[in-house]
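Co-fold these.
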Amino acid sequence: MEVRMSDIKELLDEAVGSYEPRSDQRAVEERVERRKQRRRLAAGSVALGVFILAGWFAWTAFRPGGATVGSTGSGTYVLSDFEVSAHFEGNLAPKPAEVDPRQADVTFVARWSSNEYPGVHSCTLQVFDPAGAQIGSVSIEMDSMRKESPSSMPLPVTGPIEGATAIGSCGPERLDTPIAYEISDVHLIDDLTVSYVAGWPDSLIEGEYPGTNACTVALFQNGDLVAQKHLTLAVGDQQEVTSTQFNQFNDQLVLVPPSSLDATVVCGPYVGEGVYPDPKPLTDATVPPESGTVLVPDITGLSLEAALGQLESLGLTIRVTLSAAEDIPEGLVASQDPAPGTSVDAGTTVTIIVGEGQVQAWNVLRVTCPASGPPEVRTPLVAAQPDGLHVVVDNRSDAVAVLIRQPSRPWVEWSSGSDGLNDEFVRSVPPGDSLIGCLTNDGTSYPSPTGEQQPNEGAFTVVDDESWASTDLSCGYDESWAFSARGSSSVPVDPDQPDEAVKAFVPGILSTDRVEGGGHPPGVIDELFVRIVRDGALVAWVRAVPRDVGDGSTDWQLNGYACPGSGIG
Amino acid sequence: VVVLQTRSVTTEGVGFSDFFAEHYEPLVRACLLLTGRAAEGEDLAQEAMARVLERWDRVSAMDDPEGYLYRTALNVHRKALRRLAVAARHQMPRDPPDDPEVTDRRLDLLRAVRSLPRAQREALVLVEWLGYSAEEAGSMLGIEPASVRGRLHRAREGLRQRYGGSDE
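Predicted complex below.
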């Protein structure tokens, strides 16, 4: 393929210039409305959610349809909160000419009905006139990975929509019989990649599609389940070869040589922790050598990705150090410790130095929260992400949140909650040794952030990034200098110039102190990160997160670190 | 001055619809460049617009609401308040164009852009794609215009190298 590189703009245009947005203004407004609703709930008000656009639509025939049709119970989508309104082209502020009388807009909220991900995400929406006659219907494919998916669906109708109602249903029962993907030709390719053909059953009537494509790949050895992966097939054609890769390190496989592996791939509406019928023998399986002592391979000169792959497959732990030295090629491994050929125990940490540049100084963590004990924190074989610390929570028990903290600093960050399956969140985390803990809903409370590692924490290190310049205080660091405080202020804060406003709510700050920094970066309105300088010396830094209290003032949660004797905090 | 207080959202949206109609499509495309993935890009664009809508009474009074919009998008991208990221990682692209080669190539391009460091990507999107000057981009990113030019230069070089790598 001939590619002209002369015009970057042209290149970008080719990449995205023809991309049409799939969302519209309504989606944005619904998002705003959802946040408002959450705030109302948080404030304890029991106000029923009033649809944000009700005012707009009041002039046209409109009334909510009430019906919710449950589906097959656990493991499927549940639809609720139906609204029917006239459809407006483009969903902009309506003008009478823009109303299409043959189009209804059906708004609904789809939720998972359990902590399992839905096995079924084919749904049907139907619209009925006041006499109960069906005037329109549409089948849709839900977004399978979202716990809650509010959406609006333009839907052709054959009659006037005045007084119309809508219902929806999800699940295979809307088909005559439950239909799942059929799996065939299961076999093992290189190492631990299970390959299989996923297809629609022949019995499927043309134009129909399987009611479910939630599947589980299970790996067995000597009859024991050694690993399983849950996935949602995205098979577009009727027959498609697809595969799932297991990694001995990432998936914590303890394999016993020299016996072979068996595998089962099963799809269905209630796939989860369950029964796996008839594992198929994978006769060409090659089981890696028993874990124990391994020889460190020579990985110098390899790309970071290739090096990680080699080390991971041997069960070694990897620590990556980035170097900006000019003689180290970008993205390549310059040196390693221990040296090649060294005999080490499995699990030993190998430190590698990689040239900086396209490799970002950020981490990707995969965290498994067990029912008790510390979480497993691993760095999976994923290219480093440029926009923060990516934490992927891989857990199917009952973790509800993941916390990251740094013992040397009064710094705690947490996910808003995890549904337990590949839930991913991203945080800007200052560099340094860090601990990660799981907060479970079995009553385990998270211990107060002291410097000691707690039973439910695992350790990792966040490496430097340019956006977190050194925050060392002029007096050094000691964790006992950490402080947490609350402040209140009715003074608006300009995050670009936070000086005077910050002084209104940081306890102990002197009027002669200088406040440096601001929201990171400019324009951020929901977080401040400032340094406090006294007589030219950095005496404290403070991270301040506002909380609106509704009476014109703002409560600030402060976490900081201040030199002893400064009186700050 | 950005006021650090949440006020009740005005949904009357006088003028917001026009603003939305004018800016949403380019915003989504810029976000697609920033994130490299359709679902993330859409989510980022929605989030940025939602924040603008929540503050529309103030944003509409600004000299440069568009600049605020893109600053917000960049900030959200950095802080990555993205619930949709997961969905994007697990789904095949749903919008295959007619010519499969175009798909591959478009994905290639997006991948190449995504492989750039974030700072370079931001400069690239602001200047090359959205047409801001280095001075304007610098003020949006909170850095010197010279730094913008430097990042831009490295982004162009990086794109040439990386994309050139698959150029047969």
